[in-house]
Amino acid sequence: MEWHTDDDGTTMASTASILDGNSFKAEDADGLDPRTRALTERRRVLGSAYRLFYRHPVELVRGRGAHAWDAEGNEYLDLYNNVPSVGHAHPRVVEAVARQMSELNTHTRYLHPAVLDYADDLLSTMPDEIDRVMFVCTGSEANDLALRVGREFTGGSAWIATSEAYHGNTALVSAHSPSLRNGEEMDPTLRIVDPPDTYRLGSETADGAGSWWLTRVAEAIAEIESSGDGFAGLILDSSFSSDGIFLGEPGMIRAALDLVHAHGGVVIADEVQPGFGRTGEAFWGFDRHGFVPDLVTTGKPMGNGFPIAAMAARREVLDAFATRRPYFNTFGGNPVAVSAAQAVLDVLRDEGLQARALSVGAQLRDALRDLGHAHPAIGDVRGSGQYTGLEIVADRETKEPGTGIALDLLEELRDRRVLTSVCGPNNSVLKLRPPLAFEAGDIPRLVEALDGSLTALGV
Protein backbone atom coordinates (compact mmCIF):
# COMPACT_ATOMS: atom_id res chain seq x y z
CA MET A 1 0.00 0.00 0.00
CA GLU A 2 1.24 3.47 -0.84
CA TRP A 3 0.04 6.70 0.77
CA HIS A 4 -0.10 10.46 0.46
CA THR A 5 -1.22 13.16 2.87
CA ASP A 6 -4.26 15.17 1.88
CA ASP A 7 -4.65 18.90 2.54
CA ASP A 8 -6.37 18.22 5.85
CA GLY A 9 -3.55 15.95 7.04
CA THR A 10 -5.35 12.70 6.32
CA THR A 11 -3.15 9.88 5.01
CA MET A 12 -4.60 8.38 1.84
CA ALA A 13 -3.62 5.72 -0.68
CA SER A 14 -1.50 7.04 -3.54
CA THR A 15 1.69 6.35 -5.49
CA ALA A 16 5.24 7.14 -4.40
CA SER A 17 8.66 7.41 -5.95
CA ILE A 18 12.12 7.51 -4.44
CA LEU A 19 12.84 10.41 -6.79
CA ASP A 20 9.73 12.44 -6.05
CA GLY A 21 9.31 12.07 -2.29
CA ASN A 22 11.75 14.70 -1.07
CA SER A 23 11.83 16.99 -4.07
CA PHE A 24 11.43 20.58 -5.15
CA LYS A 25 8.32 21.23 -7.21
CA ALA A 26 7.42 24.16 -9.45
CA GLU A 27 4.79 25.41 -7.02
CA ASP A 28 7.52 25.89 -4.39
CA ALA A 29 9.30 28.55 -6.47
CA ASP A 30 7.30 31.52 -5.15
CA GLY A 31 8.79 31.18 -1.68
CA LEU A 32 12.42 31.17 -2.77
CA ASP A 33 15.01 33.90 -2.40
CA PRO A 34 16.01 35.52 -5.71
CA ARG A 35 19.32 33.65 -6.16
CA THR A 36 17.87 30.21 -5.45
CA ARG A 37 14.92 30.87 -7.70
CA ALA A 38 17.19 31.99 -10.52
CA LEU A 39 19.31 28.83 -10.19
CA THR A 40 16.26 26.56 -10.20
CA GLU A 41 15.04 28.30 -13.35
CA ARG A 42 18.44 27.90 -15.01
CA ARG A 43 18.33 24.16 -14.29
CA ARG A 44 15.66 23.86 -16.97
CA VAL A 45 18.58 23.54 -19.37
CA LEU A 46 19.21 20.10 -17.83
CA GLY A 47 15.74 18.88 -18.78
CA SER A 48 12.71 18.12 -16.66
CA ALA A 49 13.75 14.59 -15.65
CA TYR A 50 16.16 15.92 -13.01
CA ARG A 51 15.06 16.38 -9.40
CA LEU A 52 16.22 18.71 -6.63
CA PHE A 53 15.99 18.00 -2.91
CA TYR A 54 13.79 20.17 -0.65
CA ARG A 55 11.08 22.76 -1.18
CA HIS A 56 13.87 25.29 -0.66
CA PRO A 57 16.84 23.72 -2.49
CA VAL A 58 20.30 23.91 -0.96
CA GLU A 59 23.28 25.26 -2.92
CA LEU A 60 26.26 23.34 -1.52
CA VAL A 61 29.73 24.57 -2.47
CA ARG A 62 32.18 22.60 -0.32
CA GLY A 63 32.41 19.80 2.20
CA ARG A 64 34.72 18.11 4.68
CA GLY A 65 34.05 14.89 6.53
CA ALA A 66 30.35 14.61 7.39
CA HIS A 67 29.79 18.35 6.99
CA ALA A 68 29.02 20.62 4.04
CA TRP A 69 28.69 24.38 3.50
CA ASP A 70 26.32 26.36 1.34
CA ALA A 71 27.05 29.41 -0.80
CA GLU A 72 26.33 31.74 2.13
CA GLY A 73 28.78 29.94 4.42
CA ASN A 74 26.18 28.06 6.48
CA GLU A 75 27.39 24.66 7.70
CA TYR A 76 25.22 21.52 7.44
CA LEU A 77 25.43 18.07 9.02
CA ASP A 78 25.22 15.52 6.21
CA LEU A 79 23.22 12.43 7.18
CA TYR A 80 22.52 11.30 3.65
CA ASN A 81 25.51 11.06 1.33
CA ASN A 82 27.11 7.62 1.17
CA VAL A 83 28.89 8.41 -2.10
CA PRO A 84 31.73 10.36 -0.37
CA SER A 85 32.02 7.27 1.79
CA VAL A 86 35.10 8.22 3.80
CA GLY A 87 34.05 11.86 3.99
CA HIS A 88 33.68 14.86 1.73
CA ALA A 89 36.97 15.96 0.15
CA HIS A 90 39.08 13.47 2.10
CA PRO A 91 42.65 14.78 1.67
CA ARG A 92 44.17 11.35 0.94
CA VAL A 93 41.71 10.69 -1.86
CA VAL A 94 42.19 14.18 -3.26
CA GLU A 95 45.98 13.79 -3.19
CA ALA A 96 45.89 10.33 -4.81
CA VAL A 97 43.69 11.54 -7.67
CA ALA A 98 45.74 14.68 -8.26
CA ARG A 99 49.03 12.76 -8.24
CA GLN A 100 47.90 10.17 -10.76
CA MET A 101 46.15 12.74 -12.95
CA SER A 102 49.43 14.63 -13.17
CA GLU A 103 51.15 11.47 -14.48
CA LEU A 104 48.75 9.58 -16.75
CA ASN A 105 45.11 8.79 -17.36
CA THR A 106 44.09 6.53 -20.20
CA HIS A 107 41.77 3.66 -21.08
CA THR A 108 42.20 0.12 -19.81
CA ARG A 109 43.74 -1.64 -22.80
CA TYR A 110 47.26 -0.95 -21.58
CA LEU A 111 49.05 -2.65 -18.73
CA HIS A 112 49.11 -0.72 -15.46
CA PRO A 113 50.25 -2.36 -12.19
CA ALA A 114 48.09 -0.07 -10.00
CA VAL A 115 44.95 -1.46 -11.62
CA LEU A 116 46.03 -5.04 -10.88
CA ASP A 117 47.18 -4.18 -7.36
CA TYR A 118 43.78 -2.68 -6.59
CA ALA A 119 41.96 -5.65 -8.11
CA ASP A 120 43.88 -8.00 -5.81
CA ASP A 121 43.29 -5.74 -2.81
CA LEU A 122 39.55 -5.45 -3.46
CA LEU A 123 39.16 -9.21 -3.94
CA SER A 124 41.07 -9.81 -0.69
CA THR A 125 38.09 -8.30 1.16
CA MET A 126 35.71 -10.89 -0.36
CA PRO A 127 35.29 -14.65 0.04
CA ASP A 128 37.82 -16.81 -1.83
CA GLU A 129 35.10 -18.00 -4.20
CA ILE A 130 34.85 -14.47 -5.61
CA ASP A 131 38.08 -14.34 -7.60
CA ARG A 132 37.48 -12.17 -10.67
CA VAL A 133 36.64 -8.48 -11.00
CA MET A 134 35.70 -6.17 -13.88
CA PHE A 135 35.78 -2.41 -13.52
CA VAL A 136 33.18 0.04 -14.82
CA CYS A 137 32.29 3.66 -14.06
CA THR A 138 28.95 3.43 -12.24
CA GLY A 139 26.79 1.10 -10.19
CA SER A 140 24.27 1.12 -13.03
CA GLU A 141 26.91 -0.25 -15.41
CA ALA A 142 27.97 -2.84 -12.85
CA ASN A 143 24.41 -4.11 -12.39
CA ASP A 144 23.77 -4.05 -16.14
CA LEU A 145 26.81 -6.26 -16.66
CA ALA A 146 25.85 -8.54 -13.77
CA LEU A 147 22.34 -9.10 -15.13
CA ARG A 148 23.83 -10.04 -18.50
CA VAL A 149 26.44 -12.34 -16.96
CA GLY A 150 23.85 -14.06 -14.80
CA ARG A 151 21.55 -14.71 -17.74
CA GLU A 152 24.43 -16.10 -19.79
CA PHE A 153 25.47 -18.49 -17.03
CA THR A 154 22.01 -19.82 -16.19
CA GLY A 155 20.38 -19.64 -19.60
CA GLY A 156 17.34 -18.13 -17.85
CA SER A 157 15.74 -14.73 -18.32
CA ALA A 158 13.68 -14.12 -15.19
CA TRP A 159 15.09 -12.22 -12.24
CA ILE A 160 13.54 -11.58 -8.82
CA ALA A 161 13.80 -8.12 -7.24
CA THR A 162 12.20 -6.48 -4.23
CA SER A 163 9.22 -4.19 -4.60
CA GLU A 164 10.96 -0.83 -4.07
CA ALA A 165 14.46 -1.79 -5.19
CA TYR A 166 16.57 0.63 -7.18
CA HIS A 167 19.57 -0.82 -9.00
CA GLY A 168 20.42 1.86 -11.56
CA ASN A 169 19.36 3.69 -14.68
CA THR A 170 20.42 1.85 -17.83
CA ALA A 171 17.54 0.48 -19.90
CA LEU A 172 18.17 -3.07 -18.64
CA VAL A 173 18.68 -2.11 -15.00
CA SER A 174 15.78 0.35 -14.87
CA ALA A 175 13.58 -2.49 -16.08
CA HIS A 176 14.70 -4.44 -12.98
CA SER A 177 14.26 -1.54 -10.53
CA PRO A 178 10.65 -1.75 -9.30
CA SER A 179 10.89 1.58 -7.48
CA LEU A 180 10.80 3.18 -10.94
CA ARG A 181 7.81 1.25 -12.23
CA ASN A 182 5.48 4.25 -12.18
CA GLY A 183 7.55 5.74 -14.99
CA GLU A 184 9.50 2.80 -16.42
CA GLU A 185 8.31 -0.38 -18.09
CA MET A 186 9.46 -3.41 -16.11
CA ASP A 187 11.01 -6.42 -17.81
CA PRO A 188 8.13 -8.80 -18.61
CA THR A 189 9.99 -11.69 -16.97
CA LEU A 190 10.76 -9.82 -13.72
CA ARG A 191 9.13 -11.14 -10.56
CA ILE A 192 8.67 -8.68 -7.72
CA VAL A 193 8.57 -9.69 -4.06
CA ASP A 194 7.96 -7.57 -0.98
CA PRO A 195 10.91 -7.07 1.41
CA PRO A 196 11.10 -8.58 4.91
CA ASP A 197 9.51 -5.66 6.77
CA THR A 198 10.99 -6.25 10.21
CA TYR A 199 8.84 -3.51 11.76
CA ARG A 200 5.46 -4.87 10.70
CA LEU A 201 6.39 -8.55 10.77
CA GLY A 202 7.63 -8.15 14.32
CA SER A 203 10.94 -9.98 14.10
CA GLU A 204 14.36 -9.36 12.60
CA THR A 205 15.43 -13.02 12.76
CA ALA A 206 15.59 -15.91 10.31
CA ASP A 207 12.59 -17.48 12.07
CA GLY A 208 10.54 -14.28 11.79
CA ALA A 209 10.94 -11.89 8.89
CA GLY A 210 13.48 -14.20 7.28
CA SER A 211 11.04 -17.12 7.20
CA TRP A 212 8.31 -14.89 5.79
CA TRP A 213 10.65 -13.69 3.06
CA LEU A 214 11.80 -17.22 2.26
CA THR A 215 8.18 -18.07 1.46
CA ARG A 216 7.85 -15.05 -0.86
CA VAL A 217 11.03 -15.96 -2.74
CA ALA A 218 9.95 -19.61 -2.98
CA GLU A 219 6.61 -18.55 -4.47
CA ALA A 220 8.34 -16.37 -7.06
CA ILE A 221 10.72 -19.16 -8.06
CA ALA A 222 7.86 -21.63 -8.40
CA GLU A 223 5.93 -19.20 -10.59
CA ILE A 224 8.97 -18.64 -12.83
CA GLU A 225 9.60 -22.37 -13.21
CA SER A 226 5.98 -23.03 -14.12
CA SER A 227 5.99 -20.21 -16.68
CA GLY A 228 8.87 -21.40 -18.81
CA ASP A 229 10.70 -18.05 -18.62
CA GLY A 230 13.79 -19.68 -17.17
CA PHE A 231 15.12 -18.74 -13.74
CA ALA A 232 18.15 -16.43 -13.80
CA GLY A 233 18.30 -15.52 -10.12
CA LEU A 234 17.87 -12.75 -7.56
CA ILE A 235 19.28 -9.23 -7.59
CA LEU A 236 19.39 -7.87 -4.06
CA ASP A 237 20.52 -4.97 -1.92
CA SER A 238 20.84 -6.83 1.39
CA SER A 239 20.13 -3.61 3.32
CA PHE A 240 16.79 -3.30 1.47
CA SER A 241 17.62 0.39 1.29
CA SER A 242 14.98 1.75 -1.07
CA ASP A 243 12.45 -0.68 0.41
CA GLY A 244 12.73 1.04 3.79
CA ILE A 245 16.04 -0.21 5.32
CA PHE A 246 15.55 -3.70 6.74
CA LEU A 247 18.99 -5.02 7.58
CA GLY A 248 17.59 -7.44 10.16
CA GLU A 249 19.67 -9.72 12.32
CA PRO A 250 22.75 -11.29 10.68
CA GLY A 251 21.67 -14.39 8.76
CA MET A 252 18.04 -13.29 8.45
CA ILE A 253 17.87 -13.82 4.67
CA ARG A 254 20.40 -16.65 4.31
CA ALA A 255 17.81 -19.39 3.74
CA ALA A 256 16.19 -17.49 0.87
CA LEU A 257 19.53 -16.97 -0.84
CA ASP A 258 20.39 -20.65 -0.42
CA LEU A 259 17.05 -21.48 -2.04
CA VAL A 260 17.99 -19.44 -5.12
CA HIS A 261 21.13 -21.55 -5.50
CA ALA A 262 19.20 -24.77 -4.94
CA HIS A 263 17.04 -23.91 -7.95
CA GLY A 264 20.01 -23.11 -10.19
CA GLY A 265 19.79 -19.32 -9.98
CA VAL A 266 22.54 -16.85 -9.22
CA VAL A 267 22.55 -14.14 -6.58
CA ILE A 268 23.68 -10.63 -7.46
CA ALA A 269 24.67 -8.78 -4.28
CA ASP A 270 24.22 -5.08 -5.02
CA GLU A 271 26.64 -3.57 -2.50
CA VAL A 272 26.36 0.08 -3.48
CA GLN A 273 24.50 0.79 -0.22
CA PRO A 274 25.70 -1.74 2.41
CA GLY A 275 29.25 -2.31 1.19
CA PHE A 276 32.66 -0.98 2.24
CA GLY A 277 32.13 -1.43 5.97
CA ARG A 278 28.97 0.64 6.30
CA THR A 279 27.08 -1.95 8.35
CA GLY A 280 29.94 -2.19 10.84
CA GLU A 281 29.36 -5.90 11.38
CA ALA A 282 31.00 -6.91 8.12
CA PHE A 283 32.83 -5.31 5.22
CA TRP A 284 30.09 -6.42 2.82
CA GLY A 285 26.36 -6.58 3.36
CA PHE A 286 26.10 -10.14 2.07
CA ASP A 287 28.80 -11.18 4.54
CA ARG A 288 26.52 -10.17 7.45
CA HIS A 289 24.21 -12.96 6.36
CA GLY A 290 26.94 -15.61 6.04
CA PHE A 291 26.36 -16.06 2.34
CA VAL A 292 28.63 -16.11 -0.71
CA PRO A 293 26.91 -14.58 -3.76
CA ASP A 294 27.82 -15.28 -7.36
CA LEU A 295 28.18 -11.66 -8.46
CA VAL A 296 28.97 -8.58 -6.38
CA THR A 297 28.36 -5.06 -7.66
CA THR A 298 29.66 -1.81 -6.25
CA GLY A 299 29.23 1.87 -7.11
CA LYS A 300 30.78 5.27 -6.61
CA PRO A 301 31.28 4.98 -2.81
CA MET A 302 34.30 2.81 -3.68
CA GLY A 303 36.00 5.92 -5.11
CA ASN A 304 34.57 8.44 -2.64
CA GLY A 305 32.45 9.81 -5.47
CA PHE A 306 35.00 9.46 -8.25
CA PRO A 307 33.33 7.50 -11.08
CA ILE A 308 34.52 3.96 -10.51
CA ALA A 309 32.49 0.83 -9.84
CA ALA A 310 33.00 -2.91 -10.17
CA MET A 311 31.44 -6.28 -10.75
CA ALA A 312 33.22 -9.08 -8.90
CA ALA A 313 32.37 -12.68 -9.71
CA ARG A 314 32.88 -16.35 -9.21
CA ARG A 315 35.19 -17.41 -12.03
CA GLU A 316 32.89 -20.07 -13.44
CA VAL A 317 29.93 -17.68 -13.52
CA LEU A 318 31.87 -14.97 -15.33
CA ASP A 319 33.49 -17.38 -17.79
CA ALA A 320 30.13 -18.31 -19.30
CA PHE A 321 29.90 -14.69 -20.46
CA ALA A 322 33.54 -13.72 -20.88
CA THR A 323 34.53 -16.64 -23.11
CA ARG A 324 31.75 -15.76 -25.57
CA ARG A 325 31.62 -11.96 -25.47
CA PRO A 326 34.41 -9.38 -25.37
CA TYR A 327 33.73 -6.49 -23.00
CA PHE A 328 35.40 -3.11 -23.03
CA ASN A 329 34.69 -0.11 -20.81
CA THR A 330 36.85 2.79 -21.92
CA PHE A 331 37.37 4.43 -18.55
CA GLY A 332 36.15 1.75 -16.15
CA GLY A 333 39.01 1.29 -13.71
CA ASN A 334 41.36 3.79 -15.35
CA PRO A 335 44.53 4.67 -13.39
CA VAL A 336 43.09 7.84 -11.83
CA ALA A 337 39.86 6.13 -10.78
CA VAL A 338 41.81 3.22 -9.32
CA SER A 339 43.98 5.67 -7.37
CA ALA A 340 40.83 7.09 -5.77
CA ALA A 341 39.52 3.62 -4.99
CA GLN A 342 42.81 2.46 -3.49
CA ALA A 343 42.93 5.54 -1.28
CA VAL A 344 39.41 4.76 -0.03
CA LEU A 345 40.40 1.20 0.95
CA ASP A 346 43.51 2.50 2.68
CA VAL A 347 41.55 5.15 4.61
CA LEU A 348 38.90 2.64 5.66
CA ARG A 349 41.60 0.47 7.21
CA ASP A 350 43.90 3.14 8.61
CA GLU A 351 41.10 5.17 10.22
CA GLY A 352 39.18 2.13 11.48
CA LEU A 353 35.99 3.34 9.83
CA GLN A 354 34.20 0.00 9.88
CA ALA A 355 34.68 -0.31 13.64
CA ARG A 356 33.63 3.33 14.08
CA ALA A 357 30.50 2.66 12.02
CA LEU A 358 29.58 -0.19 14.36
CA SER A 359 30.03 1.75 17.60
CA VAL A 360 28.78 5.17 16.49
CA GLY A 361 25.78 3.67 14.69
CA ALA A 362 24.73 1.81 17.83
CA GLN A 363 25.05 5.00 19.89
CA LEU A 364 22.97 6.89 17.34
CA ARG A 365 20.12 4.38 17.38
CA ASP A 366 20.11 4.31 21.19
CA ALA A 367 19.77 8.10 21.20
CA LEU A 368 16.97 7.98 18.62
CA ARG A 369 15.07 5.36 20.64
CA ASP A 370 15.33 7.60 23.70
CA LEU A 371 13.95 10.46 21.61
CA GLY A 372 11.04 8.25 20.64
CA HIS A 373 9.76 8.33 24.24
CA ALA A 374 8.86 12.00 23.71
CA HIS A 375 7.62 11.79 20.12
CA PRO A 376 4.97 9.22 19.15
CA ALA A 377 5.61 9.86 15.44
CA ILE A 378 8.80 7.79 15.79
CA GLY A 379 7.49 4.32 15.11
CA ASP A 380 10.69 2.36 14.67
CA VAL A 381 14.46 2.77 14.79
CA ARG A 382 16.40 0.08 12.95
CA GLY A 383 19.68 -0.53 11.19
CA SER A 384 23.29 -1.57 11.57
CA GLY A 385 26.47 0.45 11.62
CA GLN A 386 26.18 3.76 9.80
CA TYR A 387 22.87 2.81 8.21
CA THR A 388 19.76 3.71 10.16
CA GLY A 389 16.10 3.81 9.23
CA LEU A 390 13.85 6.08 11.29
CA GLU A 391 10.26 5.14 10.51
CA ILE A 392 7.73 7.93 10.94
CA VAL A 393 4.13 6.89 11.63
CA ALA A 394 0.78 8.61 11.87
CA ASP A 395 -0.30 6.09 14.50
CA ARG A 396 1.94 3.82 16.55
CA GLU A 397 -0.81 1.31 17.23
CA THR A 398 -1.73 0.73 13.59
CA LYS A 399 1.77 1.54 12.27
CA GLU A 400 0.15 3.66 9.60
CA PRO A 401 2.89 5.37 7.56
CA GLY A 402 3.35 9.03 8.41
CA THR A 403 4.25 10.16 4.90
CA GLY A 404 3.16 13.78 5.26
CA ILE A 405 4.87 14.07 8.64
CA ALA A 406 8.10 12.60 7.27
CA LEU A 407 8.22 14.98 4.31
CA ASP A 408 7.51 17.99 6.53
CA LEU A 409 10.15 16.72 8.95
CA LEU A 410 12.78 16.77 6.20
CA GLU A 411 12.06 20.44 5.60
CA GLU A 412 12.28 21.25 9.31
CA LEU A 413 15.61 19.45 9.49
CA ARG A 414 16.85 21.27 6.42
CA ASP A 415 16.04 24.58 8.11
CA ARG A 416 18.09 23.37 11.10
CA ARG A 417 20.89 22.50 8.66
CA VAL A 418 20.66 18.74 8.86
CA LEU A 419 20.44 16.95 5.52
CA THR A 420 18.77 13.61 4.86
CA SER A 421 15.97 12.10 2.79
CA VAL A 422 13.31 9.37 2.79
CA CYS A 423 12.85 5.88 1.43
CA GLY A 424 10.31 3.06 1.52
CA PRO A 425 7.11 2.59 -0.47
CA ASN A 426 5.40 5.43 1.41
CA ASN A 427 8.34 7.84 1.70
CA SER A 428 7.92 7.55 5.46
CA VAL A 429 11.36 6.27 6.51
CA LEU A 430 14.17 8.75 7.12
CA LYS A 431 17.34 7.36 5.55
CA LEU A 432 20.21 8.21 7.91
CA ARG A 433 23.25 7.20 5.89
CA PRO A 434 26.07 9.69 6.51
CA PRO A 435 29.64 9.57 5.27
CA LEU A 436 31.62 7.20 7.48
CA ALA A 437 33.38 10.27 8.87
CA PHE A 438 30.26 10.86 11.01
CA GLU A 439 31.35 10.79 14.66
CA ALA A 440 29.78 10.27 18.08
CA GLY A 441 30.16 14.03 18.65
CA ASP A 442 27.71 14.65 15.79
CA ILE A 443 24.90 12.70 17.44
CA PRO A 444 23.68 15.39 19.90
CA ARG A 445 23.29 17.87 17.06
CA LEU A 446 21.13 15.44 15.07
CA VAL A 447 19.02 14.57 18.10
CA GLU A 448 18.53 18.23 18.97
CA ALA A 449 17.47 19.01 15.40
CA LEU A 450 15.06 16.06 15.32
CA ASP A 451 13.61 16.98 18.69
CA GLY A 452 13.07 20.58 17.64
CA SER A 453 11.60 19.58 14.28
CA LEU A 454 9.18 17.04 15.71
CA THR A 455 8.15 19.50 18.41
CA ALA A 456 7.51 22.19 15.79
CA LEU A 457 5.30 19.70 13.92
CA GLY A 458 3.46 18.76 17.10
CA VAL A 459 4.31 15.09 16.80
TrEMBL record:
Keywords: Aminotransferase, Pyridoxal phosphate, Transferase. Pfam families: Aminotran_3 (PF00202). One of its GO terms (molecular function) is transaminase activity. It comes from the Bacteria. Gene3D superfamilies: Aspartate Aminotransferase, domain 1, Type I PLP-dependent aspartate aminotransferase-like (Major domain). Belongs to the class-III pyridoxal-phosphate-dependent aminotransferase family. This is Aspartate aminotransferase family protein. It comes from Frondihabitans peucedani. The lineage of its organism: Bacteria, Bacillati, Actinomycetota, Actinomycetes, Micrococcales.
